[in-house]
Design brief:
- This protein is an alpha/beta fold and 119 residues long.
- It has one domain.
- The chain has helices spanning 25-41, 43-52, 72-76, 80-83, 85-99, and strands at residues 2-7, 10-18, 64-70, 102-109, 114-117.
- It has a five-stranded mixed beta sheet with strand order 1-2-3-4-5.
- The two termini are 22 Å apart.
Length: 119
């Protein structure tokens, strides 16, 4: 899923890897990084929001954030689900430090219809 968010810091592209039950946070983080790489390397993908969006005057290069979004239980279920969260966080933090990739884990709270970064 590709979203355009416009906030105080200006417009930003958000590429989202949505997870329900399959695999765990580690696999989701690796898949997100793969999708981010494909997106960044594709000139056509980079133009999607400028060509199809309804926001006028978007800058040529929009900042990009990647999110793995899942319900809280995806990250907190016993066993492999919980055990994979910390290695996934370390992987995403390392990618941020070494390559400048902004990628995060986030929880979808259906009652409040909010997405919050996993803490």
């Amino acid at each position: 899923m590709l979203l355009l968010l416009v906030g105080e810091d200006g417009p930003r592209q958000v590429l989202i890897e949505v997870k329900a039950n399959s695999n765990n946070a580690w696999y989701a983080a690796v898949e997100l990084l793969r999708q981010l790489r494909l997106f960044v390397d594709s000139c056509a993908a980079q133009r999607i929001l400028r060509l199809r969006g309804s926001v006028a005057g978007l800058p040529h290069e929009l900042p990009l954030t990647g999110l793995v979004v899942a319900r809280p239980a995806f990250f907190s279920a016993p066993g492999q689900k919980t055990n994979a969260v910390e290695p996934a966080r370390r992987l995403l933090a390392r990618m941020n430090t070494n390559v400048g990739v902004d990628a995060r884990l986030a929880e979808w709270h259906s009652l409040g219809r909010t997405i919050e970064e996993l803490r």
